[in-house]
Amino acid sequence: MLLKSIHYREYSGQPKEWTTPTVELERVNLFVGKNATGKTRLLNIIGALGALLSGKIAPGNYQSGHYTAKFEGSDSRDVFDYQVKYDLSHVEMESLKINGKAMLSRGKSGRAKLRHEQPAQFITVQSPQGQLLSVSRRDALQHPYFEELYGWGQSVRHYRFGMNLGNATMEIGNSASENPQERFSAANDANAALGVYRYGLAKFGPKLKKRLLDDMAALGYRIDDLGIDNFPNAKVNVNNVASVPVMLYVKESDLKSKTYQSEMSTGMSRAFALLVLTTVNILEESASSILIDDIGEGLDYQRAVSLIKLLIGKTRTSPIQLIMATNDRFVMNEVPLSLWNVITREGSQLRVFNQKNAKREFSQFEGLGLSNFDFFSSDAFLGIPNAGQKVSVIRRRAN
Question: Phi, psi at residue 21, to the nearest 5°?
């Protein structure tokens, strides 16, 4: 299942109101924008929709929200239109249409009409106000369409590259390897690289290690080996017994000893952890959407560029959707404008510009032969005072 578009609003008509336009998404996407324009918040909104549809979080955990989302079904001919609105932790509206046909229609009272498959008919149900029907009424026989929404939500992965990504994560011996599937269920946790690697190694064996070695080499890291081993610089007490924990490591070609994740540079640790997480998800084909905030943060120019190209290449050959966000000019220059969504903000209102809604501006700029960052910094797509003047300056430089 693929998320094709999303619109969100919260606290409508109140001082805290915050809205996004309808954001149309492709298989690979890059959100670009200045600091505090809403890139991170937009990724959080997508991640939260996944948590809602998978039942990881109930609407009762939120005060306000209104989602309108369009999905491409597992059969690419199917279009799912889903809406949910909740206020003061109560669901006020929930609806689902597939190819324009109603499957679910729910009102503020919680009373709803629901498509029943065997026999084919609509039934009327009363649902708890703090729960989604798409979650509470999951039934592979009677309501199979909810399984698709659940599957998408369950497999959204949200990683914040600017965070540590588990560089201090340790485990005791082989305790986690007894149930690797359980460890993999935490793959949405950015600190779970160690557990995810265990799972991947158990399922894919040397294939996983080879891919990671090749990927690290593509980023310019000369690595002879990688894996999990005892971390000799730490001891922990478990039931009053001193134990040596284990940690992810790499063996760099020009060093005689292993480098454990907590000893790696910030950029190397983040890149290594992200490659573990994304590679296992791609091999497993278990992720629907991978969200990566602040992609490239902490990496030098060449490695940031190489990581972006590597991730785009990986996801283009998989069913996984990639959504990244950045304000790094080097990252912007390496991602084609066709994949851009430029985020700006006016008060509590987000605006999004891409090749669909600003086709003329994008096309004109691409003919100038300048860097992508020049397009971003020129504000050519905003339609605000002085934008045209800035574009004229760029054109004169190009001539």
Answer: -75, 180
Give Cα separations from 231 to 173, 181, 248, 274 (angstroms).
Answer: 10, 24, 9, 21
Helix (H, G, I), strand (E, B) or coil at 191: coil
User: Residue length, the chain?
Assistant: 399
Q: What is the pLDDT of residue 270?
A: 92
Distance (Å, whole) CA 49 – CA 145:
17
Given CA atoms 56, 189, 36, 352 in this order, what sign does their dihedral have?
negative
- Strands 321-326, 28-32: pairing is parallel
Please say whether the beta carbons of 220 and 306 come within 8 A.
yes
Please list the rounded mean pLDDT of every run of 10 residues in the chain (399 residues): 95 91 92 88 94 90 92 93 92 95 92 88 87 90 91 92 72 53 52 86 93 96 93 64 78 94 91 92 85 89 90 87 88 83 88 84 70 71 42 37
**Is residue 244 classed exposed, middle or buried when 0-12, 13-18 and 19+ CB atoms within 10 A define those classes?**
middle
Say if CB 199 and CB 180 are below 8 A apart. yes
Are 300 and 12 within 8 A, CB to CB? Answer: no
CA 180 to chain centre: 23
| 8 A C-beta contact, residue 83 and residue 68 | yes
Give 229's strand partners: 247
Residue 391 token pair: 């574009």
Residue with tokens 């109140």: 14
Q: What is the pTM of this model?
A: 0.86
Cα angle for residues 307, 168, 216 (degrees, 5° grid):
25
Yes or no: say if 219 and 304 are a contact pair by the CB < 8 Å rule. Answer: no
